[in-house]
Write a structure and sequence with these properties.
Aspartate Aminotransferase, domain 1; 2 domains; EC 2.6.1.9; aminotransferase; transferase; PyrdxlP-dep_Trfase; HistidinolP_aminotransfase
């Protein structure tokens, strides 16, 4: 389908059959006028992006205002402006400020950790997972020891532990994992991290920590506080809706944090600092984001149930389901209908990862996927 005919398909879907699916209340019918102004959801008039696990409701009004004010300091280097944000993060996480390293999105944190600790040895991780650390470290000469996910599509902690050797410099955990969305049992992760971090640094990627539905699920920050060789990464890209603004942070004991901060490349910027400070204060938007992600997941899984397609229990802002179709083909078919969905995650080539868009976007997606797979 050409660009023009794709656009007209979307238009038709959005304002024709799609709108019908949304009910008589219209495109933004589920939001009050006040909410629309506050969260400014984009009109559904272009390609619908359900492929990168973004939060389509961000940035919130308070974050936008903070960035606008930040323009006044656009002529200044950001170093002098980091302190307040670091203080806020240290209070939130309950660690001293020398445990925090600000990074331009947690991807930068993953990359610098890969080259800080992986050099001259190997990193062990499971596959599939989020690749940034491993693909970057490989370019710098680090070997990657890949362990397949186990039969339940969980990180295979037993097998990782077996493979740890004198060559192992770091172990990468992603919990909840991308692309599965699954969460490991808390006691198993804690035991694993305590044991393995005595032999190699353990990196815990907690990009989706805020979406975890299990009450009191521990962050590995608790083990950082106890002095273990563990690095935790967090991001402002997901629940806070700032993926395009680029802000994340690492948490580690000061000896490790110093090694990491010495290797930061991109660094932060004034807009990202101001937006992130506002994000930490905007409790309403935080709750709203989680609520909307849960509503969207319920709609996605309802359709998957109707289609009788299995899916995994998600503690994130996306759903991973067994489409039974080759993902490259499905990517193309859905793109032609105006939707970007998740990329292939080998060897799970007949699985598909779909992110939570706005409620309106998800309804349109559900309609299209039903036509394609139903
Ligand atoms: C597990 C995981 N870690 C890190 C990231 C990167 O996030 P950031 O925008 O902070 O670089 C993502 C993005 O999708 C992710 O899924």
């Amino acid at each position: 389908m050409s660009g023009i005919s794709r656009r007209s398909w979307i238009k038709k879907a959005s304002y024709g059959s799609g709108l019908a699916a949304l009910g008589s209340t219209g495109l933004f019918g589920s939001l009050s006028a006040e909410e629309i102004r506050k969260y400014n959801p984009r009109p559904v008039d272009s390609i619908i992006r359900l492929g990168s696990n973004e939060n389509p409701y961000g940035p919130s009004e308070s974050m936008r205002n903070a960035m606008t004010k930040g323009f006044d300091n656009g002529c200044r280097y950001p170093w002098g402006f980091n302190a307040d944000l670091v203080k806020m993060i240290s209070e939130k996480e309950g660690v001293p400020e020398d445990h925090i390293v600000l990074v331009a999105g947690s991807t930068e944190g993953l990359k610098i950790a890969g080259i800080t600790f992986g050099g001259g040895g190997e990193i062990i991780s499971c596959s599939p997972t989020f690749l940034s650390m491993m693909s970057y470290a490989e370019l710098w000469g680090t070997d990657i020891n890949w362990v397949p996910l186990n039969k339940d599509l969980d990180f295979d902690l037993d097998e990782i532990e077996k493979r740890v050797s004198y060559k192992t410099k770091m172990v990468f955990l992603c919990n909840p994992n991308n692309p599965t969305g699954k969460l490991l049992p808390a006691d198993q992760v804690v035991d694993f991290c305590k044991t393995v971090s005595k032999q190699a640094v353990v990196f815990s990627d907690e990009a989706y920590y805020d979406y975890i539905r299990e009450p009191n699920y521990p962050s590995m920050v608790e083990l950082v506080k106890q002095g273990y060789d563990i690095v935790v990464s967090r991001t402002f890209s997901k629940v806070y809706g700032l993926a395009g603004i680029r802000m994340g942070y690492l948490i580690a004991k000061p000896e490790l944090a110093k090694l990491l901060s010495d290797r930061v490349v991109a660094n932060t910027n004034i807009m990202a600092i101001e937006a992130s400070k506002a994000a930490l204060l905007d409790k309403d938007f935080y709750q709203f984001s989680i609520q909307k992600a849960n509503e969207a997941k319920a709609l996605l899984t309802q359709t998957l149930d109707e289609l009788k397609l299995p899916y995994l229990d998600s503690h994130t802002n996306f759903i991973f389901f067994h489409s039974g179709r080759d993902i490259k083909e499905l990517n193309k078919t859905m793109y032609d209908r105006g939707f970007i969905i998740g990329r292939p995650f080998e060897p799970l080539n007949d699985w598909c990862r779909v992110s939570t868009g706005t409620i309106e976007e998800v309804k349109l997606y559900n309609q299209a996927i039903t036509e394609v797979l139903g």
